[in-house]
Amino acid sequence: MATAVRTEITDRVAVLTLSNPERRNAMNLDLSGKLADAVRTVTADDAVGAVVVTGEDPAFCAGGDLGELAKADPATLLDVYAGFLAIAECPLPTIAAVNGAAVGAGLNLALACDLRLAGPRARFDARFLPLGLHPGGGYTWMAQRVLGPQGAAALTLFGDVLDAEEAARIGLVYRAVDDVVAAAVELAARAAAAPPDLVRTTKSTLRLTAGMSTQAEAVEVEVRAQAASVNSDEFQQRLAALQAKISSSARGQKG
Q1: Backbone angles phi, psi at 176, to 5 degrees
Q2: 91-129 pLDDT per residue, tens
Q3: Rounded CA gap, 212 and 221, in Å?
Q4: 62 pLDDT more than 80
Q5: Family assignment (predicted)?
Q6: 81-94: pLDDT as tens digits
Q7: What angle, 0 to 180 degrees and rounded to 10, lies between the N-to-C axes of helices 74-88 and 105-112?
Q8: How far apart are CA 220 and CA 218, in angstroms?
Q9: Are 106 and 163 in contact (CB under 8 A)?
Q10: Which 3 state secondary structure label does DSSP give 226?
Q11: Lower CB density within 10 Å: C or N end of the chain?
Protein backbone atom coordinates (compact mmCIF):
# COMPACT_ATOMS: atom_id res chain seq x y z
CA MET A 1 0.00 0.00 0.00
CA ALA A 2 1.22 3.50 -0.82
CA THR A 3 2.29 5.98 1.81
CA ALA A 4 0.30 9.18 2.26
CA VAL A 5 -0.22 12.17 4.51
CA ARG A 6 -3.92 12.93 4.63
CA THR A 7 -4.99 16.50 5.40
CA GLU A 8 -8.35 17.43 6.92
CA ILE A 9 -9.18 20.97 8.02
CA THR A 10 -11.69 21.53 10.83
CA ASP A 11 -12.20 24.80 12.75
CA ARG A 12 -9.03 26.22 11.13
CA VAL A 13 -7.07 23.22 12.40
CA ALA A 14 -5.24 21.05 9.86
CA VAL A 15 -5.08 17.41 10.95
CA LEU A 16 -2.18 15.65 9.21
CA THR A 17 -2.49 11.87 9.37
CA LEU A 18 0.55 9.75 8.52
CA SER A 19 -0.34 6.62 6.58
CA ASN A 20 2.12 3.83 5.87
CA PRO A 21 -0.11 0.98 6.99
CA GLU A 22 2.16 -1.92 6.05
CA ARG A 23 4.91 -0.47 8.28
CA ARG A 24 2.79 1.05 11.07
CA ASN A 25 3.47 4.52 9.67
CA ALA A 26 7.26 4.11 9.74
CA MET A 27 9.00 7.27 8.54
CA ASN A 28 10.60 6.34 5.22
CA LEU A 29 11.92 8.86 2.70
CA ASP A 30 8.64 9.00 0.80
CA LEU A 31 6.49 9.62 3.88
CA SER A 32 8.96 12.15 5.27
CA GLY A 33 8.88 14.14 2.04
CA LYS A 34 5.09 14.04 1.94
CA LEU A 35 4.86 15.25 5.53
CA ALA A 36 7.24 18.13 4.82
CA ASP A 37 5.17 19.07 1.75
CA ALA A 38 1.93 18.89 3.76
CA VAL A 39 3.36 21.14 6.48
CA ARG A 40 4.46 23.72 3.90
CA THR A 41 1.03 23.61 2.23
CA VAL A 42 -1.01 24.15 5.40
CA THR A 43 1.40 26.79 6.70
CA ALA A 44 0.80 28.81 3.53
CA ASP A 45 -3.00 28.38 3.78
CA ASP A 46 -4.76 31.36 5.36
CA ALA A 47 -7.60 29.01 6.36
CA VAL A 48 -5.28 27.15 8.76
CA GLY A 49 -4.29 28.48 12.16
CA ALA A 50 -2.90 25.38 13.89
CA VAL A 51 -1.71 21.86 13.07
CA VAL A 52 -2.39 18.44 14.61
CA VAL A 53 -0.22 15.46 13.64
CA THR A 54 -1.36 11.89 14.16
CA GLY A 55 -0.98 8.44 12.62
CA GLU A 56 -3.29 6.00 10.96
CA ASP A 57 -4.52 3.62 13.66
CA PRO A 58 -3.25 1.64 15.44
CA ALA A 59 0.17 3.36 15.45
CA PHE A 60 1.44 6.93 15.64
CA CYS A 61 4.79 6.31 13.94
CA ALA A 62 6.78 3.12 14.44
CA GLY A 63 10.20 4.66 13.78
CA GLY A 64 12.36 4.99 10.71
CA ASP A 65 12.52 2.55 7.82
CA LEU A 66 15.42 0.30 8.89
CA GLY A 67 16.06 -0.84 5.34
CA GLU A 68 16.66 2.74 4.24
CA LEU A 69 18.63 3.58 7.38
CA ALA A 70 20.98 0.66 6.78
CA LYS A 71 22.23 2.36 3.59
CA ALA A 72 21.96 5.98 4.74
CA ASP A 73 24.68 8.61 4.48
CA PRO A 74 24.38 12.03 6.20
CA ALA A 75 22.54 13.57 3.21
CA THR A 76 19.99 10.73 3.19
CA LEU A 77 19.50 11.00 6.95
CA LEU A 78 18.67 14.69 6.58
CA ASP A 79 16.00 13.70 4.05
CA VAL A 80 14.61 11.19 6.57
CA TYR A 81 14.49 13.98 9.16
CA ALA A 82 12.74 16.41 6.78
CA GLY A 83 9.21 15.58 7.91
CA PHE A 84 9.62 16.07 11.63
CA LEU A 85 12.02 18.99 11.12
CA ALA A 86 9.27 20.69 9.09
CA ILE A 87 6.99 20.25 12.10
CA ALA A 88 9.69 21.56 14.44
CA GLU A 89 10.17 24.66 12.28
CA CYS A 90 6.46 25.26 11.62
CA PRO A 91 5.44 28.81 12.65
CA LEU A 92 1.93 27.62 13.55
CA PRO A 93 1.06 25.98 16.88
CA THR A 94 1.48 22.19 16.60
CA ILE A 95 0.05 19.29 18.62
CA ALA A 96 1.01 15.62 18.41
CA ALA A 97 -2.06 13.42 18.90
CA VAL A 98 -0.19 10.25 19.85
CA ASN A 99 -2.71 7.49 19.20
CA GLY A 100 -0.33 4.52 19.39
CA ALA A 101 3.34 3.60 19.38
CA ALA A 102 5.80 6.50 18.92
CA VAL A 103 9.13 4.77 18.37
CA GLY A 104 12.49 6.28 17.35
CA ALA A 105 11.70 8.74 14.57
CA GLY A 106 8.09 8.67 15.76
CA LEU A 107 9.22 9.88 19.15
CA ASN A 108 11.19 12.59 17.34
CA LEU A 109 8.01 13.61 15.53
CA ALA A 110 6.08 13.85 18.80
CA LEU A 111 8.87 15.83 20.48
CA ALA A 112 9.01 18.22 17.52
CA CYS A 113 5.48 19.44 18.29
CA ASP A 114 4.73 22.27 20.70
CA LEU A 115 2.45 20.03 22.74
CA ARG A 116 1.72 16.32 22.98
CA LEU A 117 -1.49 14.51 23.93
CA ALA A 118 -1.54 10.74 24.48
CA GLY A 119 -4.39 8.36 23.75
CA PRO A 120 -5.01 5.09 25.63
CA ARG A 121 -2.78 3.03 23.30
CA ALA A 122 0.11 5.53 23.23
CA ARG A 123 3.58 4.17 23.92
CA PHE A 124 6.86 6.10 23.85
CA ASP A 125 10.01 4.15 23.03
CA ALA A 126 13.33 5.71 21.95
CA ARG A 127 14.81 2.32 20.95
CA PHE A 128 17.91 3.77 19.31
CA LEU A 129 20.59 2.00 21.36
CA PRO A 130 19.02 -1.50 21.31
CA LEU A 131 19.17 -1.27 17.50
CA GLY A 132 22.81 -0.19 17.58
CA LEU A 133 21.76 3.19 16.25
CA HIS A 134 22.84 6.62 17.48
CA PRO A 135 19.94 9.07 18.03
CA GLY A 136 19.50 11.68 15.30
CA GLY A 137 17.37 14.54 14.10
CA GLY A 138 17.99 16.62 17.21
CA TYR A 139 16.49 13.95 19.46
CA THR A 140 19.00 14.42 22.30
CA TRP A 141 18.33 18.18 22.39
CA MET A 142 14.56 17.79 22.25
CA ALA A 143 14.43 15.02 24.85
CA GLN A 144 16.55 16.94 27.36
CA ARG A 145 14.60 20.15 26.76
CA VAL A 146 11.30 18.36 27.48
CA LEU A 147 12.37 15.84 30.15
CA GLY A 148 15.59 17.21 31.61
CA PRO A 149 18.86 15.24 31.70
CA GLN A 150 17.59 12.44 33.94
CA GLY A 151 14.35 11.80 32.06
CA ALA A 152 16.15 11.89 28.72
CA ALA A 153 18.72 9.42 30.02
CA ALA A 154 15.96 7.08 31.25
CA LEU A 155 14.40 6.86 27.79
CA THR A 156 17.59 6.99 25.75
CA LEU A 157 20.32 5.20 27.69
CA PHE A 158 18.26 2.92 29.92
CA GLY A 159 15.49 2.02 27.49
CA ASP A 160 12.52 3.05 29.63
CA VAL A 161 9.27 2.67 27.66
CA LEU A 162 6.35 4.81 28.74
CA ASP A 163 2.59 4.40 28.44
CA ALA A 164 0.20 7.35 28.27
CA GLU A 165 -0.28 7.79 32.02
CA GLU A 166 3.42 7.60 32.85
CA ALA A 167 4.28 9.95 29.97
CA ALA A 168 1.80 12.46 31.41
CA ARG A 169 3.18 12.02 34.92
CA ILE A 170 6.75 12.89 33.92
CA GLY A 171 5.76 15.69 31.52
CA LEU A 172 6.53 14.04 28.19
CA VAL A 173 2.90 14.68 27.25
CA TYR A 174 0.61 17.45 28.44
CA ARG A 175 -2.34 15.17 29.09
CA ALA A 176 -3.59 11.60 28.60
CA VAL A 177 -7.06 11.53 27.01
CA ASP A 178 -9.52 8.99 25.64
CA ASP A 179 -10.18 10.48 22.17
CA VAL A 180 -6.80 11.95 21.37
CA VAL A 181 -7.45 13.43 17.93
CA ALA A 182 -10.71 15.10 19.00
CA ALA A 183 -9.03 16.51 22.12
CA ALA A 184 -6.10 17.78 20.05
CA VAL A 185 -8.38 19.49 17.54
CA GLU A 186 -10.40 21.12 20.32
CA LEU A 187 -7.23 22.44 21.94
CA ALA A 188 -5.65 23.53 18.65
CA ALA A 189 -8.84 25.37 17.65
CA ARG A 190 -8.33 27.77 20.56
CA ALA A 191 -5.00 28.86 19.11
CA ALA A 192 -6.43 28.93 15.59
CA ALA A 193 -9.19 31.31 16.72
CA ALA A 194 -6.69 33.99 17.78
CA PRO A 195 -5.31 36.59 15.32
CA PRO A 196 -2.99 34.66 12.97
CA ASP A 197 -0.05 37.08 13.00
CA LEU A 198 -0.25 37.37 16.78
CA VAL A 199 -0.18 33.59 17.20
CA ARG A 200 2.90 33.24 15.03
CA THR A 201 4.67 36.09 16.80
CA THR A 202 3.82 34.70 20.23
CA LYS A 203 5.11 31.23 19.30
CA SER A 204 8.31 32.83 18.03
CA THR A 205 8.66 34.78 21.28
CA LEU A 206 8.15 31.65 23.38
CA ARG A 207 11.01 29.97 21.53
CA LEU A 208 13.25 33.01 21.80
CA THR A 209 12.72 33.64 25.50
CA ALA A 210 13.11 29.94 26.37
CA GLY A 211 16.83 30.35 25.79
CA MET A 212 17.19 33.53 27.85
CA SER A 213 18.68 33.58 31.32
CA THR A 214 16.90 36.59 32.83
CA GLN A 215 13.39 38.01 32.95
CA ALA A 216 14.77 41.40 31.93
CA GLU A 217 15.86 39.98 28.57
CA ALA A 218 12.37 38.59 28.01
CA VAL A 219 10.78 41.92 28.93
CA GLU A 220 12.81 43.68 26.24
CA VAL A 221 11.56 41.24 23.61
CA GLU A 222 7.95 41.24 24.79
CA VAL A 223 7.51 44.99 25.21
CA ARG A 224 8.05 45.68 21.53
CA ALA A 225 5.80 42.83 20.40
CA GLN A 226 3.07 43.77 22.86
CA ALA A 227 3.17 47.43 21.82
CA ALA A 228 2.74 46.37 18.20
CA SER A 229 -0.25 44.21 19.11
CA VAL A 230 -1.89 47.05 21.03
CA ASN A 231 -1.92 49.11 17.84
CA SER A 232 -3.30 46.30 15.68
CA ASP A 233 -6.80 46.38 14.20
CA GLU A 234 -7.50 42.95 15.67
CA PHE A 235 -6.85 44.14 19.23
CA GLN A 236 -8.90 47.32 18.78
CA GLN A 237 -11.84 45.36 17.36
CA ARG A 238 -11.73 42.70 20.06
CA LEU A 239 -11.35 45.31 22.79
CA ALA A 240 -14.37 47.22 21.46
CA ALA A 241 -16.43 44.02 21.37
CA LEU A 242 -15.40 43.13 24.93
CA GLN A 243 -16.23 46.61 26.21
CA ALA A 244 -19.61 46.49 24.51
CA LYS A 245 -20.31 43.10 26.10
CA ILE A 246 -19.34 44.41 29.54
CA SER A 247 -21.55 47.47 29.10
CA SER A 248 -24.48 45.34 27.98
CA SER A 249 -24.05 43.02 30.96
CA ALA A 250 -23.88 45.96 33.37
CA ARG A 251 -27.09 47.43 31.93
CA GLY A 252 -28.79 44.07 32.25
CA GLN A 253 -27.85 43.80 35.92
CA LYS A 254 -29.17 47.29 36.67
CA GLY A 255 -32.44 46.51 34.92
Answers
A1: -100, 130
A2: 999 999 999 999 999 999 999 999 999 999 999 999 999
A3: 10
A4: yes
A5: Belongs to the enoyl-CoA hydratase/isomerase family.
A6: 999 999 999 999 99
A7: 30
A8: 5
A9: no
A10: helix
A11: C
